[in-house]
Amino acid sequence: MIFKERLIHAAIFDMDGTMFDTERLRFTTIKQASAELFGETISDEILLGSLGLSAKKAEELAKSRYGEDYPYAAIRKRADELELAHVRKHGVPVKPGLYEILERLKRNGLLMAVATSSRRAIAEEYLINANVMKYFDITVCGDEVKQGKPHPEIFRTAAKELNCLPEHCLMFEDSENGLRSASGAGGLPILIKDIKEPRPDIKQLAYQAYDSMPDFLADLVRFTPNLPKPKLTDAFPQTINNMRAGIHGFGAMGGGYLAQIFSHWDGYTRPYEIIGASNNAILRSLVNAFGKYDVHYGNLAFHQTIDRIRLIDMADEAAVCEMYAVSEIIGLCLPESAIKQQAAMIAKGLVARYQNGAGPLTILVILNKLSGAAFVRRQVKEAMVRMLDEQRAEQIMAMAYFTETVVNRMVSKIPKEILLKQVRINFASFEKHTQKALGSGEGNVAPMHQEPALLAEPGLGKIVSQLRHASHLNRALDQLGVTLFESGPDMVLYAKKGGKILERLRQVQTVDNIAEIQAIKNRLLNGTHAIIAWYASLLGYQTIGQGMGDERVVMLVKRLVNNEIKPAMLQENPALAEYINTSFVNSFIARCKASFKDPCRRIGRDPLRKLQRKERIMGSIELAARHGIQTPMLEFGAALGILYSLRLITPEDKECQRIKALFEENGAVADVLAFSGDYHGKPYLGLDRQQDAALIERIAEHLRQLTDPTSAHWQWPLSYNYAEELAS
Prior knowledge:
By secondary structure, the chain is an alpha/beta fold. It has 4 domains: 2-19 and 94-221, 3-Layer(aba) Sandwich (Rossmann fold), CATH 3.40.50; 22-90; 244-413, NAD(P)-binding Rossmann-like Domain (Rossmann fold, 3-Layer(aba) Sandwich); 516-726, N-(1-d-carboxylethyl)-l-norvaline Dehydrogenase, domain 2 (Orthogonal Bundle). Helix 5 (98-107) packs parallel to helix 10 (213-223), helix 14 packs across helix 15 (372-385) and helix 21 (514-538) packs across helix 28. The radius of gyration is 32 Å and the shape is elongated. Residues 249-414 form the Mannitol dehydrogenase N-terminal domain. Pfam families: HAD_2, Mannitol_dh, Mannitol_dh_C. Residues 519-646 form the Mannitol dehydrogenase C-terminal domain. Keywords: Hydrolase, Oxidoreductase.
């Protein structure tokens, strides 16, 4: 590996204070042990002076202050006992960023070693407890060298055992004595600051110095490759980092897509926990009970399990604020109306994060709206200003990156009745397996007299027996699961360049101009998708997949995409050909044909919004007109949207009801398309009656044909000759 123009073959890590935040714990236990055995706690001055010293040197320092009778060896032994008891109960306090660093170094071919002043018994206990022993090829401990730090022996020994020259070894340290040891060994000392800042003359021995592990990680990322976009069937990383990710709005897109993106993370590690906020009590109960859930990819007959997931109530202000305070990244997957309701809670969460001293937060805005990120930021800022003064609010808002995104995946929720049926069936299977595992006592465990080797080890036979019982339960638990979402296979999430964390996420592709990607999706896919839903519904189909089995629907889609939308977009911006011809279009029809669990009612909802000027259908018509391209299929699609509403195929859809009311007042299509009244508190952006009169009339003619029982217009996409229309 090349790191800052130096060839690196190995990385050698100090343990206490560098990898693990144990120096503070050590101070506490030594003080307690000193009070118990000497009647007086040892001073911070002596403890700080002992950092990086061997046990012998540390003892000399302590006795120089407290006298030769100071029972340092006994105090250290008692402190070891207290420290081990704490670690066995609470775990080793691992420094943030350590797992990501170890993964990147190991997977980029470096040899790895530990060089610690601690005794081997302590070192191995800690390395195993922290689940990092697997990264290291060798371990050199303080009780195995003649001279402790600051003498260079321990680092020289580690480099020699790795068969590496010291000048090709990064040597990670936190203390003055450690730096002196690494520098004296001829290595490349990397200072990771801990409790005590080294003196300037000692600090300059460091090849590179960092305030924290995450600071070094940010530098390391520049010199190690990001992993390529994952395949759908790629496993999630095994190693868990100490980060959390949040999903505010755990619906189809949040749970069926964003959770997968966060689980893939950077391909080296994945988050300790994903926190999802949902107002669905059944969903919360099931996910929290199982501790996991599945996403089903129907076209591949593939299930992907999302674990390390916890759901909170979206109405629980304290829980939502905590999610914002502790997460590295938040996916915001709420509809526009809900964002206005949740803005105050988001603002409070950002305030709590700021007060806790946390770093910048990236908020991925998953909202099917142009400039959606700016809209969300504005709503949150307004809510925050009602809580704080303008200057303070802007200071906090500057620490949050509201990031525009484009999603290229179809996801739907499993119907409630199917969901509950899964739970009942799985629980019945679980009961059967647990009864088999526990009901017959020794029935599934080999009698101990058959295991004489185990009897020779005190207590081990009992442990193995209990573990065998547990393994049966574990197998029963593994079979428990619940599928919550049906998903398409497309992987990439497009996001505007901004927060640094996005460049590391394996499944995110950052772009400079997200508006271009939004335009492609909005016009090329979203408008087409809505037209498919309207047409399929009017033909009597329930799902997108069923509708795409009708040749009339397929022909309409192909013609409006290939002959109208694509040519207009490519003439407008030829540079978009890469995305238009590959990333979006090539898989769109195939996805639609496989969408048998994607209801037309869901895709076709809110037709009034979709028929606005500049929106997905009318915007495409306007763009094509600007380049002299006729749009009979798009206009036919607009008429389908009106007819879909007039027939109230989705009777509970308020926008369908509104379109029906507008049309029936005068029987005029213009009253619908040129509507200019209130729309969610703002003027509706309809067509202009005069300037768009010809377009309105063409759409009205399509509607007349569609409602004429003698017309063959329902077969029109099959019989329509586009070449003749262009020639005329």
